[in-house]
Design goal:
It is a single chain. By secondary structure, the protein is α/β, with parallel strands linked by helices. It has 2 domains: 2-146 and 316-328, Rossmann fold; 150-309, Dihydrodipicolinate Reductase, domain 2 (2-Layer Sandwich). It is built from 11 helices and 15 strands. It has helices at 12-21, 42-45, 62-66, 81-90, 106-113, 131-139, 149-163, 193-196, 211-222, 255-265, 313-327; strands at 2-7, 27-33, 40-41, 56-58, 71-74, 94-97, 127-128, 143-145, 173-178, 201-202, 229-234, 241-248, 272-274, 292-299, 302-309. Helix 4 (81-90) links the parallel strand 5 and strand 6. The radius of gyration is 20 Å and the shape is globular. The two termini are 20 Å apart. It binds NADP nicotinamide-adenine-dinucleotide phosphate. Residues 7-14, 33-36, 60, 75-78, 80, 98-99, 148-149, 181-182, 184-186, 311-312, 315-316 line the site of NADP nicotinamide-adenine-dinucleotide phosphate.
Amino acid sequence: MLKVGVVGATGYAGEEVIKILINHKDVKIAELQAVIDKEEPISSIFPGFKGKIDLVCKKPDPDGMARNVDLVFLGLPHKVSMELAPVFLKAGKAVIDLSADYRLQPDVYKVWYGVEHKDKDNLPKAVYGLPELYHDAIKSAKLIANPGCYPTSVILGIAPMLKEKAISTDYIIADSKSGATGAGRKPDLALAFSEVNENLKAYKVNEHQHKPEITRILSEVAGKAIDVIFTPHLIPMNRGILSTIYLKLNKKLDTKAVVEIYKKFYKGKPFVRISDEGKLPQTKDVVLTNYCDIGLKVTGDTVIVVSCIDNLTKGAAGQAVQNMNIMCGFDETEALK
Ligand SMILES: NC(=O)c1ccc[n+]([C@@H]2O[C@H](COP(=O)([O-])OP(=O)(O)OC[C@H]3O[C@@H](n4cnc5c(N)ncnc54)[C@H](OP(=O)(O)O)[C@@H]3O)[C@@H](O)[C@H]2O)c1
């Protein structure tokens, strides 16, 4: 039985990791930690866990947890994970980091997160945890940089057409909408009910911190530098991301042919579902699941891609557990179907 720890257990991503691992046949949740005033059972913090898990959530003590677990999930804010991950890695434990701390090169990280990276030794060893593109590298990884939620939906929506060399790479537009849990469980006026409800807003237009992550991975897929115009939006729902992506074809293809390209590219990938021609996915089809649903429409020389995920599942905790399953040789879909 694999002994697992969760740091940041009182956050949305941490809560979701616990929810999934409770039903995992190969895992024992051994320790939970977060910044809390008093140590108490996690079921007091999240009553939904009553009778399912009553482990006490402790104050941060990475050395103590490292002695007690085989693998740890870090559900921490950016700039915190790079302080804690080295403790676990030095102790020979595997780390799956849900923050952005291991997703970018140090110079790019400094530009977009405003601080010097504090763990340049381990950063080059991090594997980007998108199983549909990096399955084999994840198998032998000790440190996983779990992808961001927007990048998961956008990269899975674009990669097949880049691999197929069927699109112009000069003009790619990704227009994404996310529910409020994407910003985390912290008090923030912008996330107050009466600010979010009955409202729809674009924010950080083409300057959101997920843009360099999207362009980094798409450039690796294409084998050349790729830029994307990325516009995130906040919408009045708890969970769910829908990305609408516009791609310019560089050869004549109809919707049927494009659907075939995506079905072939994701053949055998358990968590990507391609809608049949004429059908488009909705967020309610994927909420509380680990699926990424993709729908396609060709109009003139433009491909319109609609890519839906649950920001907390395929966009965070579910993908993190999917990565753990691959790292540990478990069934990739264990506790996720
Ligand atoms: N929410 C999403 O949809 C989503 C999707 C993909 C990736 N992510 C990433 O996953 C990470 C967690 O996101 P979230 O939404 O769960 O954020 P969150 O709700 O704000 O949770 C952050 C957690 O980290 C704890 N924490 C903060 N500083 C700590 C420290 N120094 N030591 C130990 N625990 C500490 C917090 O404890 P207190 O609350 O008690 O302070 C809380 O439990 C973030 O990096 C986020 O970008 C989130």
